[in-house]
Specification:
The structure holds 2 protein chains of 2 kinds.
Chain A (H helix, E strand, L loop, with lengths): L2 H4 L2 E9 L3 E10 L3 E6 L6 H8 L7 E6 L3 E2 L5 H7 E4 L11 H6 L14 H13 L15 H14 L4 E5 L7 H17 L3 E6 L2 H7 L2 E6 L2 E7 H4 L2 H8 L3 E5 L5 E5 L8
Helix pairs in contact in A: 5-6
Chain B lengths: L5 H24 L7 H13 L7 H35 L11 H19 L9 H20 L7 H28 L5 H9 L10 H15 L3 H7 L3 H6 L4 H23 L5 H13 L3 H25 L8 H19 L4
The chains are: A alpha/beta, B mainly alpha.
Chain lengths: 268, 347
């Protein structure tokens, strides 16, 4: 298969600025069946890259290409939403809805203009709830869910869109470590099973080092290093990025364990 | 889970239509002159099938006074209620309403300026039937834009949405004062009537064709309805709506314009009647849920029923004296506003 056929979503020399440049000359490829992670300190522009890839923001220059050629800006929002699902960082409204009603919103881009959700949409919604282990909560109000369940709900709504590309923004923020691991395991598993092209933006280095296939390290709006985890997650690169010393240890499973060295007595 | 279907929407609309017919029949029968049911039926049947009953005072009351007023109050109520529902989705705030947001005051300012200008220029206002509702629409749209920019354009956060509401309330009272100044400084005679209109009054025979206003409102509703699903998602948050495939800017502009247009049209005849856009959507949501696809048609009909009954109460409670209908709706709406703002319920 040629590269263009397997390639799903690509940023090519993308720039974006509000008043100051936020994203500088970013090129990034998402491929099916793989989790790509963007790591960087706060304000490094990683969320902006995700929003550019999701078509929420338009690049000032450069291109976001879908399926190896179509610029995303030429597509209607509905067309984008059928292919790309974004799990945003900020919680949405809708706490008064039930879990199934909330998830059903994901069917919206697939409905006809005056259409109503049919039996098939309900089936897809229920299977999204099953994948995210929310079936038993389907009639619960969103406001009654715990933090981890809420994140799974956002993932369920994204899956109900039946996307081929999944963009997750700080998906595991503010959760206990056991929930973080559980969520990342779920995302990785779904990415493999459904051949999704998944992007995870996070500042939890240890999580992405453990679960991602490809990593991009960002600082000050630019990608400093990108590639397979083994090449990118090194002591030198992380030190450069965060100004901290790290311990990086390869695991027998092929992933990496990353720990910041926090000994206050040692001189830096 | 009960899925929303076209059949359910039709059934609910049909039931509300029957309820409206019952309310209208009741409103026809009661008043300072009561018309017994037997007479009512006889007059209605003769009106439809027989020769006109010239000179029958009951027939005159029925067909020249009460029937037009019933249609007027229904149209006004339907428009304000559905405009309220649209504003609530757009601003993600259950307290948004054409009156609270100052849209109604803006529409009355437009109407008053139009009346004063046409009078002073000696233009026959009746010659240009679109003038008055159009001036009201411009007033309403200008206020919507002003409120939006005064609040810093921000409706993204709940704080921004609260600011927007506050800007609306402030602007509404400011414009109301301008309206009073304008009216007092003109030499137009019927001040009492105009002040009644400022509170919201359906008793004066409209000098704009009722058909024109009804047409604007119905066309507005038909144009608004296709955006109902997009507005459901906008109520979740604008970025969520975008992610789920809604062309957010397009839907927002269209919904703002349509809601302003129908508000302007009915305010130009009925005045800025308070809180209908707050009360009706709230009650209808309790009955039929939050989905705008069923809420819009249901609130359109429910607004008609509610305002028709409120106006009937306004003209019968102190008969033969009449209250402006805006007094009745404010008496119900203001406590509800306080209740809702304390509960801070979601849409």
């Amino acid at each position: 298969m040629s590269e263009a056929a397997t390639l799903i979503l690509e940023a090519r020399n993308v720039n974006f600025s509000y008043r100051n440049p936020v994203v500088c000359n970013v090129s990034l490829k998402l491929v099916p069946g793989a989790v790509t992670g963007i790591i960087g300190p706060n304000g490094s522009g990683k969320t902006t890259v995700l929003r550019l890839l999701g078509g929420i923001l338009r690049p000032a220059s450069g291109q976001i290409l879908l399926d190896g050629g179509t610029p995303i800006g030429t597509l209607a929002r509905r067309e984008i939403a059928r292919r790309i699902a974004v799990v945003p960082q900020n919680a949405s409204n809708g706490s008064h809805l039930t879990v199934v009603e909330f998830t059903m919103q994901g069917r919206s881009p697939h409905l006809a203009r005056f259409g109503f959700e049919g039996a098939q949409d309900e089936e897809i919604t229920m299977s999204a709830l099953e994948m995210t282990q929310l079936t038993r909560h389907s009639e619960t109000r969103v406001r009654e869910l715990s933090g981890g369940e809420r994140q799974r709900l956002l993932l369920a709504r994204a899956l109900a869109q039946e996307p081929r590309i999944l963009l997750l923004d700080e998906f595991t923020a503010n959760l206990d470590i056991n929930f973080q691991v559980e969520l990342m395991r779920l995302v990785t598993q779904l990415t493999r099973q459904r051949r999704l092209s998944t992007l995870v933006v996070s500042h939890e280095i240890h999580l992405l080092a453990g679960f991602a296939d490809h990593i991009a390290l960002m600082s000050a709006g630019a990608i400093r290093h990108q590639g397979p985890v083994s090449q990118v997650i090194t002591r030198e690169n992380l030190n450069q990025l965060f100004g901290l010393d790290f311990q990086v240890r390869p695991l027998p499973t092929g992933s990496f364990e990353v720990l910041p060295i926090l000994d206050e007595r040692s001189p830096t | 889970m009960k899925r929303l279907s076209r059949r359910r929407i039709v059934a609910v609309s049909f039931a509300l239509l029957i309820a409206w017919a019952c309310a209208a029949t009741f409103a026809l029968a009661v008043g300072s002159v009561a018309i017994p049911p037997g007479n009512l039926v006889r007059l209605l049947v003769r009106r439809v099938f027989g020769p006109p009953a010239e000179g029958d005072p009951l027939a005159t009351i029925l067909f020249s006074v009460r029937l037009p007023r019933i249609f007027l109050s229904s149209v006004v109520g339907a428009a304000l209620a559905v405009a309220g529902a649209a504003f609530q989705s757009l601003l993600r705030n259950p307290l948004a309403d054409p009156f609270v947001l100052g849209v109604s005051s803006g529409a009355s300012l437009g109407t008053i300026l139009y009346s004063i200008l046409t009078a002073s220029w000696g233009v026959a206002a009746a010659g240009f039937v679109f003038g008055r509702p159009f001036a009201a629409f411009v007033g309403a749209a200008v206020v919507v834009a002003a409120v939006y920019f005064l609040a810093g354009g921000g409706t993204k956060s709940s704080e921004g949405s609260q600011r927007l509401l506050l800007a609306g309330v402030v602007l509404a009272s400011f414009i109301s004062s301008i309206n009073v100044v304008l009216l007092t400084s003109t030499s137009q005679a019927d001040l009492r009537g105009i002040f009644y209109w400022l509170i919201g009054d359906l008793s004066r025979p409209a000098d704009v064709s009722l058909y024109l206003v009804a047409t604007i409102v119905c066309v507005g509703f038909v144009l608004l309805y296709p955006f109902s699903r997009g507005l459901n998602l906008i109520a979740m948050g604008e970025e969520d709506a975008m992610i789920l495939g809604v062309e957010v800017p397009k839907v927002k502009v269209a919904a703002y314009l349509i809601a302003s247009l129908i508000t302007g049209a009915v305010v130009s005849v009925g005045g800025p009647i308070a809180y209908i856009g707050l009360i009706c959507p709230h009650l209808v949501r309790m009955m039929f849920g939050n989905d705008n696809r069923i809420l819009f048609p249901a609130v359109f009909l429910f607004g008609a029923i509610f305002t028709l009954l409120a106006d009937t109460a306004a003209r019968t409670l102190m008969a033969p004296a009449e209250l402006p209908v805006g007094v009745i709706t404010a008496l119900i709406g203001a406590p509800l506003f306080i209740y809702l703002s304390r509960r801070r319920s979601a849409l």
